[in-house]
Amino acid sequence: MSDVVLVLHSNPVTSASFASTLDEIGFTATLANDAEAACKMIRISRPDVILLDGEMALSDPTLCRRLRTCSPEKRLPLILLIPQGAEDVSRYLCGADADDYLCQPCQISELQARLMLCLAANERVDVRPLPHIDFSFLCDLSNLALSELSHSEIMQQVVSAVAGQIEVNRCSILLLGQNSDDAMVMASSDDLGVNGLHVVLDRYPEIREAIKSRRPLLIDNVFEHPLMEAVRQHLQHGVTNSILVLPMIDREHIVGVMVLRSARPISGFSEDEVNFCQLVANMATSALRMADVSALDGKVRSRVPVSTTVSNDGHVSQLDIAAKDLRVLVSVVDGYCMLFNETADRVAPGQNEIISGLMAGNRKLVDMASDLLDFSQLNSGSYRLDFAEHDICQLLGAVVQELAPIMSQGNIHLLNDCLNQEKMVVCDEHAIKRVFYNILNNAIKYTPEGGEICLGLRELDGEVRIFVRDNGPGIEPEKIASLFDEYTTVSSSDPKAGSGLGLAICEKIISAHHGRIWAESFLGQGSCFTFCLPT
């Protein structure tokens, strides 16, 4: 696989010229014309080096640091592109935090040499090796999900174990409040009695930024990073030099953050340390959710006579337990897969495809286990819905943004009729996003490369009607009526098919909202899925 070069330049003609040249010399080019687009490309395409317009860096001294912040998992080399004949080259380099520079226009051989030297130097960067990981801790963490421990006890075990693996002054876990403006410290490795401490997030810009970006945030030097400027006066030398913040995301919703603070003389955290901590944060989130479900399941069972449970809901309870156990186990494997994937450049040749296949297969298992658990809870009445007023267009937009990279890979064009609209409905935010995710993801699966998907919203007869139309192969008429039945797929031999529960879950969620959902399709022309919510 060729190295990826991100070209960030204000002149699109110059960017296109570099893209053509990079292609000639064996690199893959991605282009951006502003900082926001560049950060988005860094998160999607994971470039290996950046060619940066020197004029842009000159006008914004924080630009280089902001670009590096978008990729805490690995260090990004930056090469400044400086105009030929610039009188004072140092003016561009001073404070830019770049690794090298090129005067443009330049010879192709010089560009190739600078890129190769920069990439080679980056591989030789002295990175702290990850201390020996006690993998039994990760297995123990998976078992915490099914234990009788409280949230704070689970989190205390997690932060203590992380602090024992990585050299930090403090590892803490905070759960967010309803409005994400405040949080509660659930556990801290340096203070066993901190549980329940309320904090206002205005005082913690690093946490607010990680919540906003939904990605790990690395502050390699708190005394120089522009994000910390407003609170720098409160920081003490020798107490914290570097901060790592990892979002804890459950069903697309950020429920908390894991924060590591280090006073090591060498600033920052290694790539391995970031990967390991993200793995632990993911598993801790799953443990929290499983603990919630276990506690709720115990309360429900305690209120129902044993005979009723066995005769009416025995199969549901067994499915609950099986689904929880399965999801915990596959989540552990998924975490290991993520760790392998982030260090794919270190594995033997030919093993990347094996890891990719393992990740894809295990991801499907995670989704199937989640479907099983959600379906079981919807059937038993233990699936909790939190109704509040939300802008349905904003919810749809969040899902579109999440699936945008997949549509881009398939060159699928989305016609979004919901842009610049606002329509408030009373619903459960995460449940409705789950419905729309399932429907749009199905449309993407069955839309051919270069195809088109249309998303629309209409208000009619006291309800909001949302539809997703694709131009895929369509569905046979005799299968339309059973599409929303459990364990139903379009074709049992279709490799794209999932658990057969996705649409059944959608139907139950929409019914719980007193809405309607249906499908229309014509063979060879595509399908249209529609759901309605009362206004």
TrEMBL record:
Keywords: Kinase, Phosphoprotein, Transferase. The modification 4-aspartylphosphate is found at residue 53. Its EC number is 2.7.13.3. InterPro entries: CheY-like_superfamily, GAF, GAF-like_dom_sf, HATPase_C_sf, HATPase_dom, His_kinase_dom, Sig_transdc_His_kin-like_C, Sig_transdc_resp-reg_receiver. SMART domains: GAF, HATPase_c, REC. The keyword Isomerase does not apply. The keyword Ribonucleoprotein does not apply. Residues 321-535 form the Histidine kinase domain. It catalyses: ATP + protein L-histidine = ADP + protein N-phospho-L-histidine. Residues 4-119 form the Response regulatory domain. One of its GO terms (molecular function) is phosphorelay sensor kinase activity. This is histidine kinase. It comes from Malonomonas rubra DSM 5091.
